[in-house]
Design goal:
This protein has two domains: 7-200, Rhomboid-like fold; 245-286, no CATH class. The protein contains eleven helices and three strands. The protein has helices at residues 29-46, 48-51, 58-62, 68-71, 83-104, 106-126, 135-148, 160-177, 181-200, 245-262, 269-286, and strands at residues 7-8, 20-22, 25-27. A three-stranded antiparallel sheet has the order 1-2-3. β2 (20-22) and β3 (25-27) form a beta hairpin. The model is unreliable at 217-223 (pLDDT under 50).
Length: 287
């Protein structure tokens, strides 16, 4: 089967394109981080000392090993009673990470993960808390997904917001029962950074109270066209509306701006139909 394991880059680099392809696998940010998490489990099984070089150990960070602020989420193992939960966390990170990445694109999602890891890592280092595992980031992405789709149905039709309230609540109760107050703070910071960065990258439009910082360049708005003067139309008005290329282009630009902000799923049925109809008319006009 020639070409099955071929390495290639996509012909174009659009919003939803992968970084590269290995055979038939599209390597997105989510896939890349998930693969690194799985690899770290094998590294731990082979040599736990080598595995520990990527975990966040506050004393090592303070001694200058700053890369640990970035690598701790991909440092996963199967030790103790949490082995199955670590595997589940990696799977859930892949699922919810894919949903978020589809909304904001591979590059912004990569920056989002960097912000979460570094900010949470700095706080954990200050509180003298060891960090490893993708679990806290997976929880944070789940919260972002729920904030974007609060009424999405899950098991037995349970709405996403109710499931999130239960699962995240259990997470906090477990830390509280263990008197691990530092971990509660780190988890709050992780969730807060995820929500803040998702909002700044164009998600969560309903959270108007949350400041939206300019963290990444979105699609630039087209320059407004200047008219040299009023347009005078003589004669009877047509019984059916007429369209001009300028009107269609303005409609397409407005809808494209919305796609860049909230993604294709954010369009209404009427907007999708309007985009399709306008595109057909523009193509016919060009012919």
């Amino acid at each position: 089967m020639p070409g099955r394991y071929r390495f290639s880059f996509p012909a174009r680099r659009g919003h939803s394109d992968p970084w590269f392809r290995v055979g038939t696998i599209d390597v997105t940010t989510t896939v890349l981080v998930t693969a690194l998490c799985v690899i770290s489990i094998f590294v731990w099984a082979i040599d736990s000392a080598l595995w520990a070089h990527t975990a966040l150990l506050p004393s090592e960070v303070r001694s200058g090993q700053l890369w640990r602020l970035l690598t701790w989420p991909i440092t996963n193992n199967l030790a103790g009673n949490n082995a199955i939960w670590n595997v589940i966390s990696i799977a859930l990170f892949w699922y919810f990470g894919k949903q978020v990445e589809n909304q904001i694109g591979r590059a912004k999602f990569a920056w989002m993960l960097v912000l979460i890891a570094v900010i949470a890592g700095v706080v954990a280092s200050g509180l003298d808390v060891n960090l490893f595992s993708i679990r806290s980031i997976e929880v944070a992405l789940f919260v972002v997904f729920v904030a974007q789709n609060p009424r999405a149905p899950f098991f037995f039709g349970i709405p996403a917001w109710a499931l999130a309230a239960v699962l995240v609540g259990i997470e906090f109760l477990q830390y509280f029962a263990d008197r691990a107050y530092e971990l509660i703070i780190v988890l709050l910071v992780t969730i807060g950074t995820a929500v803040w960065s998702a909002r700044s990258f164009g998600m969560l439009p309903d959270l108007h109270w949350l400041p939206q910082l300019k963290l990444g360049g979105g699609r630039k708005k087209p320059a407004k066209r200047k008219h040299s003067g009023p347009v005078v139309v003589e004669g009877r008005w047509p019984t059916t509306p007429t369209y001009t290329p300028m009107q269609d282009q303005a409609a397409v630009d407005r809808i494209l701006d919305k796609i860049a902000s909230v993604g294709m799923d954010g369009l209404t049925a009427d907007e999708k139909k309007q985009l399709n109809d306008a595109s057909k008319r523009l193509r016919k006009k060009g012919d």
